[in-house]
Each structure stands twice: as structure tokens, then as C-alpha cells.
Design a protein that fits this description.
It contains no helices and seven strands. With about 110 residues, the chain is an all-beta fold. The chain has a single domain, classed as Sandwich (Gamma-B Crystallin, domain 1), CATH 2.60.20. Crystallins are the dominant structural components of the vertebrate eye lens.
């Protein structure tokens, strides 16, 4: 049997999804409460601290949902972030292992067959 490479599609239900071909947009801030350096994403980013930000202190999800990871390359604990404001790390995480997220990607909706 051939091994499939790449990430499997994720399925979610909810009102905030981008839908098939939908738009995804998130604004990341380096500091809590939407302060400091910021960047906007509309596609996945396997390493947010590589050149974009030193850390992620707060997030505004304009359209989504998004799947956030505590480690680079979409690894570690995962968090689903739906449309809304996340002013501090503990607004989206109960993690005691780290204090930021390091990778992020849109959570694509898969239709029922």
C-alpha cells in the first residue's frame, strides 16, 4: 500500500468557516492586547518567528477558522481559533508548556460525500 505524504484535510462544522474556496485572514500581534508589531496572514505559515514576529502575543481572526500550533512546522499542541479576538495567550490556550504559538494554518472545511 502506498504511503500518503502531506497533511490530511481537517473537517469542522460551524458558522465562521471560510467554506470551499473561502477567504481566510488573521492578524497577529507581537504583544498582548493587540499592541506592537503586527502581520496579516491569509495562508499557512510553518514558522511565525522566522522573519515575521519575535512572538505572538495576541490574535484577531477576521475569517477562519485557523489551526494554531505551539511548535514550528505544525507540530505540538493544537488550538482551533474561530472568528474573534484573542487578546492574550491564555485566551486561546491552557498550555503550561509554552507561552506562544509558532505555526498557523487555515482549517479547511471538507464537504460530506
Amino acid at each position: 500500500m502506498a504511503e500518503r505524504h502531506g497533511a490530511p484535510e481537517q473537517a469542522v462544522a460551524g458558522k465562521s468557516h471560510g467554506g470551499p474556496g473561502g477567504n481566510y485572514k488573521v492578524i497577529l500581534y507581537e504583544m498582548e492586547n493587540f499592541q506592537g508589531k503586527r502581520c496579516e496572514l491569509s495562508a499557512e505559515c510553518p514558522n511565525l518567528t522566522d522573519s515575521l514576529l519575535e512572538k505572538v502575543g495576541s490574535i484577531q481572526v477576521e475569517s477562519g477558522p485557523w489551526l494554531a500550533f505551539e511548535c514550528r512546522a505544525f507540530r505540538g499542541e493544537q488550538f482551533v481559533l474561530e472568528k474573534g479576538d484573542y487578546p492574550r495567550w491564555d485566551a486561546w490556550s491552557n498550555s503550561h508548556h509554552s507561552d506562544s504559538l509558532l505555526s498557523l494554518r487555515p482549517l479547511r472545511v471538507v464537504g460530506w460525500l
